[in-house]
């Protein structure tokens, strides 16, 4: 069985996505030429869009689903409680925030990206 000397590859470097060919003969990445791409080639990318940044403009709604807006409030309340020195309040709001984050991760990882993949997170 013979192995192809060039295989299609992708990489992420300095925040940019690149496509090319890995040349096994000299171990280098080379650019794709028009002859390397055929009409039947398919590129599928799965990504997560970053939510809109929160600002002081109240007319701009965050991209976060409405059922998780409480999580933002819990995080703010946690930080305000810590500044006040209310450590019981800080602990309570941190627990509530953590619950919201867990629910949001479960929600986000159930095929809502157009795929049929379910991502299971593991904490270490």
Can you offer a commentary on this structure?
The chain is of the alpha+beta class. It folds into 2 domains: 6-35, no CATH class; 49-124, no CATH class. It contains 2 helices and 3 strands, in the order βββαα. It has helices at 69-84, 87-108, and strands at residues 6-13, 16-23, 28-30. Strand 1 (6-13) and strand 2 (16-23) form a beta hairpin. Helix 1 (69-84) packs antiparallel against helix 2. It is elongated. The model has no long low-confidence stretch (mean pLDDT 79).
Q: How many angstroms separate the termini?
A: 42 Å
User: How many helices?
Assistant: 2
Number of domains: 2
Q: Point out poorly predicted stretches.
A: none
Helix proportion range: 25-40%
Largest sheet: 3 strands, antiparallel
Would you count the extended β strands for me? 3
Going by helix content, strand content and strand pairing, the class is: alpha+beta
Major sheet: arrangement of strands: 1-2-3
For the residues shown, what is the average pLDDT?
A: 79
General form: elongated
Radius of gyration from the alpha-carbon trace, in angstroms? 23 Å
What portion of residues belong to β-strands? 15-25%
Spell out the helices and strands N to C. EEEHH
